[in-house]
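Field reference: sequence -> structure
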Amino acid sequence: MRRLALFDLDNTLVNLDEAFEVWAKEFAAEHGLGSEAVDWLIGLDRTGHPHRAELFRLAREHDRRGRGS
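Structure field:
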């Protein structure tokens, strides 16, 4: 049996921007966040913070600032 690995390094197999936008909208809806949260998440992703741990750390900080904590 031959094995094959596909690596999409340049968005040719999967449009990662579109996939992230779909996820951001679902995440915002599940957590009762508005469209401004979707825009913020998309902007954060496009500035080069792709690692999940960093993205969610920044999102928590952003949420705390928005709540005044």
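Note: The helical segments are 16-30, 35-46, 52-67.
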